[in-house]
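hi support,

uploading two proteins for the ticket. first:
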Amino acid sequence: MSGELVPPPFARVRRLGLFGGSFDPVHLGHEHVARSATQAFALERVVWMPAARPPHKPERILADAADRVAMLELALEHEPSWSVSRLELDRAGPSFTIDTVRALNGVLGCASDVELFLLIGGDNLVGFAGWREIEALLARVQPVVVVRRGDEREALAELVRGLPEPLMRKVERGIVAAAPVPISSTELRAKFARGEPVDALLSPRVAEYIHARGLYRPRHA
């Protein structure tokens, strides 16, 4: 799987999804978000972008970038329309989404017929209005926010006081209500540290990789 921002076969798509995050580790909940967004907005490709340093979690110590990329490639190998990009990992400083989108616009030559969709899990709506250059970002992408079915109103309430009305409406158009997948990377890391079963929460090949590499063990182990 290529580490390019947009591998050659993907550069010709017209509806391109961008999915950023720590992916530490990637799990079935992430895949659920990508599939729900793809189905709701007929996305042709989804580029997964592991962050070098998430701006909203500056104190977090992440697994090595090479390990997170390897886990993503294992998890996504069964989906030919999904790929992994190292763009944010290879760029210095915090991984601001607006910088990534501008870089992608440059790669695509600012083609007017390419629609960009930014995939967001419902839990990331908290603080979304405070993302760097949020208005410039929303001018360039259609956010796709996957929330638990029944939580749409609450999810929108997170944004009411933080965005102008036209941008609120754009976010609202991107809300996708889906069946819940109750799992988080934080929970997974804790389960690995305690030696608890995780088989139903992530790809078996990712689990094998984590065990083989000794990731997420307690620091004193």
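and the second one:
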Amino acid sequence: MADGTQQPPQTSNGWAQPVPKVKVSHVPEGAVNLNVDGRQLSGPLQGFGPMWQKTYSIVLPPGTATPEEAIRVWKENFTDFWLPGDHFYGPLSGLNPGDVALINSKESVPGGLLKLSTGVMVVYADDTSFTLMTTQGHPFSGWVTFSSYEAEGGTRVQAQVLMRANDPMWEFGMRFLGGHRTEDRIWQHTLSSVAAHFGVAAPISTEIVCVDKKIQWGRAGNIWQNAGIRSGMYMTVSPFLRFRSAVRGSRRA
């Protein structure tokens, strides 16, 4: 593939074939590949905190775009619709089942104190929807489904998140450091950007439901895969690693 990410074989019904571990064969220029390669996918059942369903949507006026056109444009321009300052390194050809995307983000970390390196995989895609699933250590365990359908005389486009905070640290951040507000801002911006592409400016509808209030204490050990902690460790040691590499290179010269 042009961007170098490995695309596992697809099934005929839009689903990516199950993979025991995510594999990234190439890192796009400027991206940091941490907490993705070799990690498993992690859905809501594997998370720690309460389960939330968040739905963000907007209606495009009649004649603006068909559901199929809206999703095609969304897939092809997903990176451009991402929150400014963050980076979503997706495939150049759009998002297809089995594709892996790297995410380097400051917005996903409460307080923006470090650049989080994580990723997602496209587990399903068809003409009117596609679903991204998170890797272990991501701020939340779950998936995000992007869809479009005819409604209210126009075309509704929406992002629906089903998630649990991945571990106790991320749950603390979600509850007390603005993590939920940050999550809302990411998808509200994305929907606004999709609408703006079609020349539409309108408020984003946001619906938030707590599906399960239970904390899954048996998943507290997820913190060992925490992408924030590991990204912070990488930021701390990477200057020394670059310095050591430069010294070795000068000695060989």
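thanks. also noticed: The chain has one domain: 44-252.
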